[in-house]
Specification:
Order of helices and strands: EHEEHEHEHEEHEEEHEEHEHHHHHHHHHH
CATH architecture of the largest domain: 3-Layer(aba) Sandwich
Distance between the termini: 40 Å
CATH topology of the largest domain: Rossmann fold
Structural class: alpha/beta
Shape: elongated
Mean pLDDT: 91
Helix content: 40-55%
Strand content: 5-15%
Length: about 425
């Protein structure tokens, strides 16, 4: 069959796309950016759920398509990617286009825990999409999976990072339950439903076992090869404020939507999905045992929180190095420092305010997380320039009791670490 999958570049969508392609289906994957290399039966096209909010945006893409699988979803808002636009407007436009194109089966991936009582924007918009599809009178299946995990999963990475901390923080006593679902099992099940046809219902999908979150973290720590660590209970009231900060600043897996689903127990007793697909899902201990930890997994887990903090601390240093001299240090003192490297007069004034401005701009740029590579390279170049100039014209600064030049060496290396991490994965 010809199958169109939205979100084919994401964690869940890519697994479903490759599973279907291996089964012989012709897959059209909607992605934000085309991958560098193709993959057999998968053809990639560019789509943008922040912009494709009209049925006309999807009509040409649906020509010759038999089945549509919608996997697109966001866990936190960023720029034009709002819950309303992505979960409601673009998704409903896709469903309307599917109706016009007489698509044989629409499979919509929602989330376990979506319900009438939850009040987060994530939940409200997810529920709106589910309800819209149910009332559209087209062949459909809505899947609400529990926590899908795998080694490319952002949530898997963040939980491993928490598990690798010296003290493992948990909400309240870590009693809230999750039902881990191996993404390969889920993708295989979706492939089986493609063969079976529309179910015209909602199927909750959970893994084979339910665990308190503290037990999941314990299993991850053991998988990472680390010794046991004490649990640090964090009151839910405090955690609620922390995740709101995550919504605004970090735009990652630590957010209000995840907190809401976690603290309502992300579990289901339904096994209908597995009965229909004939799949025996693997347990969390089984999948961890089948995927031995690599040294890089442990290394990355330990640095997961360190690298962003390193970037923020460097950004703070650059911003402070601009604001403190500008606001608290007499200009004459600053000009005396420039005179030591033979910069005087009008040129000294221009150089002083230009240097402070550049420091401030680079600090803000690093704090924002945009253009990290370019910002780090400019910072390293400026630090190197400062160091060389002082070495040539004021070498006694190397012997200063507070080490202002000596500190350039670890700062250069720290900036290099942020640069290297930014190339491998955004920090």
């Amino acid at each position: 069959m010809n199958i169109l999958i939205t979100g084919a570049g994401g964690f869940i969508g890519s697994h479903i796309a490759h599973t279907l392609a291996k089964s012989g289906h012709m897959v059209t994957g909607c992605v934000r950016r085309k991958p560098a290399t193709g993959s057999g039966n998968i053809r990639y096209i560019i789509c943008d759920f922040a912009a494709d909010t009209k049925p006309e945006s999807w009509q040409a893409r649906l020509e010759g398509i038999d089945i549509v699988i919608n996997v697109v979803g966001i866990i936190t808002e960023s720029g034009p990617n709002t819950f309303k636009r992505v979960h409601v407007e673009a998704t409903q436009a896709l469903f309307d286009a599917c109706k016009e194109a007489c698509i044989k089966h629409v499979i919509h991936i929602s989330a376990l825990g979506v319900c009438e009582t939850a009040k987060t924007a994530y939940n409200i918009t997810k529920l709106a999409a589910d309800t819209y599809l149910q009332n559209l009178k087209i062949p459909y299946t809505i899947l609400r999976p529990s926590w899908l995990y795998g080694q490319r999963s952002p949530s898997f990475e963040v939980l491993c990072a928490f598990a690798a901390l010296p003290l493992i923080p948990v909400v309240d006593k870590g009693q809230y339950k999750v039902q881990p679902l191996w993404v390969t099992d889920f993708a295989t099940g979706v492939s089986a439903l493609v063969k079976q046809g529309p179910q015209n219902t909602i199927l909750d999908v959970g893994g084979p076992e339910q665990f308190p979150i503290k037990e999941v973290l314990s299993q991850f720590r053991h998988w990472l090869g680390l010794r046991k660590a004490p649990i640090l209970p964090v009151p839910a009231s405090l955690t609620r404020h922390i995740v709101k900060l995550g919504d605004v600043l970090f735009k990652g897996p630590i957010n209000s939507a995840s907190f809401d689903m976690l603290t309502r127990h992300n579990i289901t007793e339904s096994v209908l999905f597995w009965q229909k697909t004939g799949i025996q899902p693997q347990t969390l201990p089984q999948t961890l045992a089948q995927n031995p930890v690599q040294r890089s997994d442990t290394f990355y887990a330990r640095l997961f929180f360190v690298l962003p903090l390193l970037r923020y601390s460097l950004a703070f240093m650059w911003i402070a190095s601009a604001l403190i001299p500008a606001l608290f240090i007499p200009k004459s003192v600053l000009l005396d420092l420039f005179a030591e490297v033979h910069i005087t007069g009008r040129i000294a004034d221009i150089t002083l305010w230009g240097a402070l401005g550049v420091d401030f701009i680079l600090g803000v740029a690093l704090l924002s997380g945009r253009y990290v590579r370019l910002t780090c390279m400019l910072q390293m170049g400026i630090i190197a320039l400062y160091t060389v100039a002082l070495s040539l014209f004021a070498p006694h600064w190397w012997l200063h009791p507070y080490g202002p030049v000596l500190k350039n060496i670890p700062i250069l290396i720290a900036t290099w670490a942020v640069l290297a991490a930014g190339r491998a994965k955004h920090v």
